[in-house]
Amino acid sequence: MAVTILGIESSCDDTSAAILRDGHLYSNVISGQDVHRNYGGVVPELASRAHQQHIIPVVDQAFQQAGILKEEIDAVAFTQGPGLLGSLMVGSSFAKSFSLSQAIPLIGVNHLQAHILAHFIKDPEKQGRDTPRFPFLCLLVSGGHTQLTVVRDHLDMEIIGETIDDAAGEAFDKCGKIMDLPYPAGPIIDKKAQLGNPHAFEFTRPKIEELNYSFSGLKTAFLYFLRDQVKQDKDFISNNFNDLCASLQYTIIDILMDKLIQAAQQTGIREVGIAGGVSANSGLKDAIHQAAQKHNWKVHIPRFEYTMDNAAMIAMTGYYKYLNEDFSGIDVVPQARFKY
Length: 340
Hints:
Elements: E1 4-9, E2 15-21, E3 24-31, H1 44-66, E4 75-81, H2 85-102, E5 106-110, H3 111-117, E6 136-141, E7 146-153, E8 156-162, H4 168-178, H5 186-193, H6 216-232, H7 236-239, H8 241-267, E9 271-275, H9 282-295, E10 298-300, H10 304-307, H11 311-323
Parallel strand pairs: 1-4, 4-5, 6-9, 9-10
Antiparallel strand pairs: 1-2, 2-3, 6-7, 7-8
Helix pairs in contact: 1-2, 3-11, 4-6, 4-8, 5-8, 8-9
């Protein structure tokens, strides 16, 4: 018998709803929030208010696109955490209400685990693309998180390395803000980096033990470097903008890849995937393909729309948890920090 899941994602500033049946995606609707561009980052209170405005229209559109009735839904999965608490509360409240009204199971999902399971979403555009074989190694890189995870099964994952301070996505955005770029700065830096010299400037690389990451030192070094250069040339940033973007991006990716290569060597795993918003970065994708040729890896990169925050990955995770009968009680609470 087919299993149909409604997924709800509201961890940060994107409101999303998706409908998935037996792993096959029927709809995935996402509504962003442009208001945060005026503030250089996500404002939690504005985000939660926008989620309240968007949640019902987004879910309604997901049902219309899927051509599925609410009575056909077997369970509703929602992002339980990590994320902004106010935003998470909007999604969880809606999911609880839907669960009660339809008398169907409620499934709390870890947002980061869902990013990894985005590799398994089935849709017409993915025909012929292989899914990772277990065990595989996944580098999760997003605005708020950077992790190395060994994935032994759909719901059996072990974090073997993570950032001890800023995430890679934060490094892109915060360094972009130093250069007066709008939020989010990552995509702009990626675009301009392709026009610059990645070796024009050298920036600090942290010396962190084991497989953990750190990006706060790079951000500080970048700030002080520009401060000193602008004192000598007030037009330094504009005159060297493409080279600055290329050098910054090269450094961030080099830090990410160094630990990923170490992890692959230590674990002996050659199935390697990336996930999260920064996995859409062209430089990171080029770097992982180059490493794959050198180290004989088989690489898996999700489609662009599944790298960002979306409900399809929540529904996909909900589907596997449904098969395991891993349900949540109506008293389940959102968690700003949520380990899997």
